[in-house]
Amino acid sequence: MVCNDPRETEKDLNAAMDVLHKNAADYRINPNEIVFSGFSAGGHLAALHSARCSRRGSCPKAQVLHYPYLDAGAMIFCSEVGTRYREQMDFNECHPTSLMDRGVPPTIVYHANQDELVQTRQMTDYVTALTNHGVPHEYYEAPSGGHFLVSFSELAAATSLTATANYASLIEHALALPDAQCNRCTDNPSQALYDEGLVCNSPEIFSRVESACSAPHWNRRGYCRQTCFNLGKAYDGEVCCDSAVAADKPVEKEEVAPDSPAVSSTLCTPCYDNLSREMIQNHLTCADSEEDIQTKCRDDEYWTLNRLCQATCYLVGRGYDGDECCEAISM
Q1: N or C: which end of the chain has fewer CB within 10 A?
Q2: Could you report the per-residue pLDDT of 260-317, keeping only the tens digit for each?
């Protein structure tokens, strides 16, 4: 039975990242080298956040997952308070393996093959997804032990790590892995654009946005990150995921054989999660705003006019009229 809203923990994680970034000088830390390390349910939380984070500074540099509770954790996160999570069959939107993309940070996964709570299959499925998406990673499996920490010597025996290393060494090892291939870039408009009812990827204002991308305060606040990248004005070396699609050009769907029932001449278009002013002020993403998604997609005049949370609305079956979002676009 789910007794408390597990999504609050992900909001806490976002808030913690905000605190670390805003107070980095006082804490004497490098906010660009934060590593998540999660055990069991904490491993699921770390992996889930790493699969969904998109605000600048919200993603870790790397993650170390110790026997992460992937399947059950996803069921719990996707269940309503007061329901039995084991009865939750639709949990892909909370499942790190299903959400895998090129923006997941470098990952180290540790597991013991006698773990009866988290089957090895869950680990191998996750590692396969990491491999298929080109995410730098390492997988270590101890030959014994259950759903708990084993002695590091057992883990080291199955890997290239030395017996004198320890669990903290995995953090250092994760930092040494190649960087993530890309950033999930938000497309949040500046206050001026928002006040005019405009969104970043409106073709009629591309020249205006292109000029503004060079403004220091736009860079600092991360306005229109995806559109600026698509216009060749990337911020601070950012490489936005699935950026090969230009914001002003529809993308033709993959052609299939003429006798296939899936034949369609429909053009798909890039879809972005433009945020409402309330979301921006409260540091929320579309994924954090489930009630708004269920009540405002298609039904709210202002949301419809500005295509707010366009990608998320489309993914949950509440897309705006005429939308045909490209599967290749990072949501």
Answers
A1: N
A2: 333 333 456 667 787 777 776 676 788 888 889 989 998 888 888 778 888 889 888 8
Query: Which residues of 114-249 form beta strands (DSSP E)?
Result: 137-142
Calpha distance 81→183 (Å, rounded):
32
Nearest-10 crossing angle of helices 41-52, 70-77: 70
Reported as half-sphere exposure (CB side, CA atoms, 13 A), residue 142 has a value of 20
Domain positions in the chain are 7-175, 191-315
Can you tell me the distance from the alpha carbon of 198 to that of 194, in angstroms, rounded to the nearest whole number? 6
Per the structure block, which two tokens stand in for 205? 């204002």
For residue 80, which amino acid is it? Answer: E
**E-strand stretches of the chain:** 35-39, 62-66, 107-112, 137-142, 251-252, 267-268
Q: Using CB atoms within 10 Å of the CB of residue 191, give its burial: 0 to 12 exposed, 13 to 18 middle, 19+ buried.
A: exposed
Please give the CATH superfamily to which domain 7-175 belongs. Alpha/Beta hydrolase fold, catalytic domain (3.40.50.1820)
Q: For tokens 């923006």, what's the residue?
A: 103
Got the DSSP string for 260-304?
STT---PEEB----BPPHHHHHTT--GGG-HHHHHHHTTT-HHHH
For the full predicted model, state whether its pTM sits above 0.85.
Answer: no
For residue 84, give every residue at least 6 positions away whose Cβ sits within 8 Å of its Cβ, in sequence order, or none. Answer: 1, 2
* Strand, helix or coil for residue 3: coil
